[in-house]
Amino acid sequence: MAPIENKVLVLFAHPAQRRSEVNVHMARVAEWVPGVTVVDLYAEYPNLDIDVETEQARLRDHDVLVFLHPLYWYSTPAILKEWQDLVLEYGFAYGSGGTALHGKTFFSALTAGGPEAAYRAEGYNHFPLRQLLAPLEQTASLCGMTWLPPFVLHSARRAKEEGRIEAHLDAWEHLLEAVVHGRLDLATLREAETLNGVLDVAVQGG
Amino acid sequence: MESFLLQAFVYLVAAVVAVPVANRLGLGSVLGYLIAGVVIGPLLGVVGAETQDLQAYAEFGVVMMLFLIGLELEPKALWNMRVRLLGLGGMQVAVTTGLITAAAMAFGLYWSVALAVGLVFSLSSTAIVLQTLGEKGLIRTDGGQASFSVLLAQDIAVIPMLALIPLLAAPELMGANWGGGISDIRFTAGGGGSILEGQPGWIVTLVVLGSVAVIVLGGHYLTRPMFRFLALAKLPEIFTAGALLMVIGIALLMTLVGLSPALGTFLAGVVLANSEYRHELEADIEPFKGLLLGLFFITVGAGINFAILFENVFFILGLTIGMMLVKGLVLFGLAKAFKIRGAAGWLFTLGLAQAGEFGFVLLSFTTQNDVIPVGLGQTLQLVVTLSMLLTPALFIFHERVLANKVDTDKAEDDEIDQAGPVIIAGLGRFGQVVNRMLLSNGHKTVVLDYRNDLISGLRNFGVTAYFGDPSRPDMLLAAGIREAKVIIVAIDDQEKAVEIVEYVAREHPHVHIVARANDRQHVYKLYSAGARDIVRELFDSSIRAGRYALLALGHHPFDAERASRRYVKQDRHNLALLARLWDPDLTPLENEPYAAKAREINQEINEAMMKAQSPDNAGAERAWTPPPKGGKVSDDEDRQGTAAE
């Protein structure tokens, strides 16, 4: 078994997991990948009372940060915003002495209700997904992290009926393994729209 | 007996009629008492010379007042006042005495007589000023504190004055009546009756220091066992008797050694300011103090000799106004020098410009020691009385005209009273948690409980709590319910808890009530008594137990959290609905609207349970609900989205 190059921290946020058809399964899959830590934020902080010390220690302990969540109003569920507001402190994540995250990698794994075509200038969501996620990209930049485009499941509400979930979970597992074992070519990935399409070409040595 | 009853009846009628009227007119109770005295004395002539005797007893109200003030003042606070006490107070006495002495000499008085007049007029009226400041809630303001420092300094200054006055007696006037005719100076100043007369100086000093030590040490070490013993009797009046005994005992001791009883009880009050019996003592002494002070003011009004006044009306009025002007100017100058600004400075200047009850004492002492001739003494007594009569008017002037005007310049934060405390009634496990939580967030609490052992035990752990039955209104008043923002009713006795809530909701509607309930019936009673924040003592802990059970059954922690919140919300809502329909005179079965509502709620709960057991419940919850499968999210969707897929 290949050595673990990058420890991956998956912050999972889904407030209504009884109804989840994709995200919960993605979290289960991630838990079984060696080198990946999954944190169910809503389970850990049901009052949204986030423990900053714990979360910062987790960040220090990992090399790659992943937000795993459904896309709510073109952004994350509330607890992930709360997490950013509390954990990414001045002096820790940015500003004078705030170098704890320098050199780490950050990306989102998300499910979106709309089809890929909706996230275009001419689509009903009018903006590409990358552009909608600009706040996260800039957050990564200010914190000195390498930002990667999101790993996306489009039309997630129909994925179960259309039988697309298994393939997505497989791709997700492969992506995580590639990240853990340092087999991703970051330079290729940074300019892509999503991590989905480029996965095969970007994985070095397949 | 009959004449005693008649006299008591006259004084009480005068007080009961005049004081509420005066308060209604915004004049304050002091002016009300004074007017009552004028009406029953010089005007109607119902009471006569006995008012002077009575006054000597009534002055004991001042002694009690200083005891109560001492209780409010911790030793540390007294120490913090030292600059003002010595500087401000000492300067006021010295400068005023000097100026008035000079003025009296300009009127052609011999220097020793002039100095005696200066000493008499340098003192202000502790009784009027502190009573009025307390009534108007100004005692903790900057101006009030400065006034208090000066009054306290004056009370201390009375002692050397009493020692000085016999030395001023002109040798040719000195009679042989040393100590004979001064029996009416009973309480306020103990120049006469001292056991130390004729003793060498070092014995006097030793005994005086010894008695101060007795008060401080006794207050510190003896009161606790004494009150603990009294509390065993479980009879409130025995406690009251004990409190009175203590005050009177100290006054007696002070009189015996020739010290001011007012000062002695004040000292005792300071020593007891940290005691757990503080509020109980306050509640017990307060009514006596109020009545005696009222009686004192009435006797001042009744003592005005209109015959002498009308003979020299302009001269006496002129003297009064002149004296008050001199005092006012000195105070104004001191206010500037000690940086007491704005409305506080004016309160200080106007409030202390009168002569006071210690002036009476000094006057009778001086006339008896042949320092001041009797005729002049009577005139000066009128001046003192008139200036006291004018004081409430000056307070009203300050309140109506100056306070508003001066304060508009800038917001004076030193005029703001300290934040109202939180009263916690009952220091069981419930009250203790509330107390710790409030303290840890920087709030001041006053904790009351009537279980003596509990209080002493917790005091060992640094919890500041006071002994007393919080269901007694006077106890709550002593604890500061007037200034309080919140009261936590956490006593075990259900009926008493309802009584407290009723009383506070009725008499002090500005206080927010948080009440602990034992069960639903108790909730209803507290609700109809006026409480709105009602906490069932076992409700929140049961909810947590329920949530742990949900977690153990595999519910997601966030779902369990939301389920418990939903349950709390629904249950409290239903309880509030029922509380509004509950009628203390009917059983729930007799109360038809209540029973109907209860049935309706039960049905709702049953329906909700049925739904929760049905398999498609997962989609029923109304939170983070995704659009339905196949549902349209945008009008543009048909045109573009699906086509592009």
3D structure, described in words:
The complex is a heterodimer of chains A (206) and B (645). The longest helix of chain A is centred in the C-terminal third of the chain and has 16 residues, at 165-180. In chain A, helix 1 packs parallel to helix 8 (165-180). Chain A contains 10 helices and 6 strands. Chain A is α/β, with parallel strands linked by helices and 206 residues long. Chain A has a single domain, classed as Rossmann fold. Chain B is mostly helical and 645 residues long. Chain B is 68% helix and 4% strand. Chain B is built from 27 helices and 6 strands. Chain B has helices spanning 2-24, 29-43, 50-58, 60-72, 75-80, 82-106, 111-122, 126-135, 142-168, 201-232, 236-257, 261-272, 278-302, 306-311, 313-337, 342-351, 357-368, 374-407, 429-440, 452-459, 473-478, 494-507, 520-529, 539-552, 557-581, 592-613, 636-644; strands spanning 422-425, 445-449, 465-467, 486-489, 512-517, 533-536. In chain B, strand 4, helix 22 (494-507) and strand 5 form a beta-alpha-beta unit. The termini of chain B are far apart. Residues 172-192, 407-419 and 641-645 of chain B have low confidence and may be disordered. Classes of the chains: A alpha/beta (206), B mainly alpha (645).
Topology:
The complex is a heterodimer of chains A (206) and B (645).
Chain A: E1 8-12, H1 23-31, E2 36-40, H2 41-44, H3 52-60, E3 64-70, H4 78-87, E4 105-111, H5 129-132, H6 134-142, E5 146-147, E6 151-153, H7 156-159, H8 165-180, H9 186-189, H10 195-202
Parallel strand pairs in A: 1-2, 1-3, 3-4, 4-5, 4-6
Helix pairs in contact in A: 1-8
Chain B: H1 2-24, H2 29-43, H3 50-58, H4 60-72, H5 75-80, H6 82-106, H7 111-122, H8 126-135, H9 142-168, H10 201-232, H11 236-257, H12 261-272, H13 278-302, H14 306-311, H15 313-337, H16 342-351, H17 357-368, H18 374-407, E1 422-425, H19 429-440, E2 445-449, H20 452-459, E3 465-467, H21 473-478, E4 486-489, H22 494-507, E5 512-517, H23 520-529, E6 533-536, H24 539-552, H25 557-581, H26 592-613, H27 636-644
Parallel strand pairs in B: 1-2, 1-4, 2-3, 4-5, 5-6
Helix pairs in contact in B: 1-2, 2-13, 3-13, 4-12, 4-13, 6-7, 6-9, 6-15, 7-9, 7-17, 8-9, 9-16, 9-17, 10-11, 10-12, 11-12, 11-13, 15-16, 15-18, 16-18, 17-18, 22-23, 23-25, 24-25, 25-26
